[in-house]
Amino acid sequence: MAATATREEIEQRVFQALEEFGAEPDQIGPDAEFEALDVDSLDLVELAQIVEDDYAVQLKGEDMEGITTVRQAVDLVMSKLG
Amino acid sequence: MGVNYRSDSDSAEAVVKEIGDAGGRALAVQADIGDPEAPDAIFKALEEEFGPVLVLVNNAGVRADGLSPQIDDEDWAKVIDTNLSAAFRLTRRALRPMIRNRYGRVVNIASIVGAERANPGQANYAASKAGLVAMTKTVAAEVARRGVTVNAVAPGLIETDMTEGIGDGLLQHVPARRAGTPEEVAACVRFLASGEAGYVTGVCLTVDGGLTA
User: Fold this and answer.
1) Interface predicted TM-score (ipTM) over 0.85
2) Is the Cβ pair A49, B96 closer than 8 Å?
3) For B123-172, what is each residue's pLDDT tens digit?
4) Which of A21, B52, B82, B100 has the most CB atoms lying inside 10 A of its own CB?
5) Residues of chain B under the 50 pLDDT cut
6) Minimal C-alpha gap between A43 and chain B (Å)
7) Rounded to an integer, what distance in angstroms lies between the CA atom of residue B170 and that of residue B182?
8) CATH architecture entry for A2-81
9) Is residue B103 flagged as an active site residue?
10) Which residue ranges form the domains of chain B, and what is each CATH number?
């Protein structure tokens, strides 16, 4: 749940989602760029939705603007949890 | 299946019963879709009962006719809110489970009035329905790669309470020389809502006896 999620847990959840979207598992890592992973805008919308559902945080379109790497996405979720 | 209604619970329950008699499972859900909170409430009620909702038919519609100089802000807003904005809010909410499930069907009930044809006295209605078709096409393109289709059905002159009295002069222009039936519209909705229609998306299927041909 939201209050107890660790950075590692969120990162793992994001990795898992990216794999679901078809990203190559060996290319997924904190510094991977979404573009290089072939993750598109709809994938990011779905990622935001997964995070909202699993961690009860609200992510708006403007929150996701400028988010280009996995690390930035995890940072964003952590900031919303904090 | 969920059957949403605003005030006519008897009719909603009759539909639920008919579905039950045919071997299906249905639930009547009261909500005024003009309320921005309604989509979430409706979907949560249905998700609790049936699991993820993977088919949405937006068929709520209102009219508030008048020649443009006489349509006041309230009548303009009411029609746009119900016919267009509510349909968008419901679609937006519906897309969440559909995208996650890699499957979904959205069918919006539009009209030949608007994108296809002018009907003096219905500037608000026409704008709402033309907007609905535009929304249909745009959302369809956005989510197609997730196995979610979004289509519209545009009825012409159909025998319903809502069209009573407005079709008399129009009938002579309908090549089929008769009004359509709700069942004929429903058949189109059923096809677009089916698994078989998986490669049909972003279209507006006209059901008008040839009126706009």
Assistant:
1) no
2) yes
3) 999 999 999 999 999 999 999 999 999 999 999 999 987 666 666 678 88
4) B82
5) none
6) 10
7) 18
8) Orthogonal Bundle (1.10)
9) no
10) 31-207 (3.40.50.720)
